[in-house]
Design a protein that fits this description.
This protein is an alpha/beta fold and about 200 residues long. It has 7 helices and 9 strands, in the order H-H-E-H-E-H-E-H-E-H-E-E-E-H-E-E.
């Protein structure tokens, strides 16, 4: 059973990224044992078909390296050029909502439009933004963040919100043995029935 403190934090994370209000978040992976963001991104990377990933130059390595490890062709471009770099060969676009080194905001509307036009997934790292910058997670395929920044949680907490299609892909990949088992708590969020 999830401790009450964790339940409150998970509800806060969902509310901070808009998933609770939208009611479309399939799962939140809360990972006290898998304390790193890259482990959760690796779960996503190991669940989708390999291909080309477009990301921002200099983005945090916990966002980019899991894709490399999982066999993706990683293409780094300037943050302002991400939407223009997406083409029919792009499988995934992964970007931090706010760049940790500069504070620059990604143009999420342009990135999402380009990705959708070419059938690519969009994975966001909201570590630098979740807790102060409004974000509707229901628009994206995956939103991941650590809790120790603006969510004021202890180090060792990381959260992943998945849309329904990506949640099913992750579950199928884990069942097929494409990824080793991870110790984690999976909290199902059903529309209107959160943690009852």
């Amino acid at each position: 059973e999830t401790p009450v403190m964790d339940r409150r934090l998970i509800v806060s994370v969902c509310a901070a990224v808009g998933a609770l209000a939208a009611g479309v978040c399939s799962a939140i992976f809360s990972s006290p044992l898998l304390a790193v963001l890259s482990g959760l991104i690796g779960l996503v990377a190991g669940s989708v078909d390999r291909g080309k990933l477009v990301c921002a130059e200099g983005d945090f390595t916990s966002l980019t390296w899991p894709w490399l490890v999982n066999g993706f062709d990683v293409t780094e471009v300037p943050l302002a050029g991400i939407a223009d770099a997406v083409d029919s060969s792009t499988t995934v676009v992964a970007v931090s909502v706010v760049q940790s080194s500069t504070g620059e905001l990604a143009d999420l509307d342009a990135v999402l439009a380009a990705a959708r036009a070419h059938g690519a997934l969009v994975v966001l790292d909201a570590t630098q933004s979740c807790g102060w910058l409004p974000l509707d997670a229901s628009r994206f395929d995956a939103v991941v963040c650590t809790g120790y920044k603006w969510l004021c949680s202890p180090r060792g907490t990381a959260y992943l919100a998945l849309g329904e299609a990506l949640f099913e892909a992750a579950r199928a990949a884990r069942g097929a043995g494409r990824r080793p088992p991870l110790r984690r708590q999976v909290i199902q969020l059903f529309r209107g029935k959160l943690l009852q």
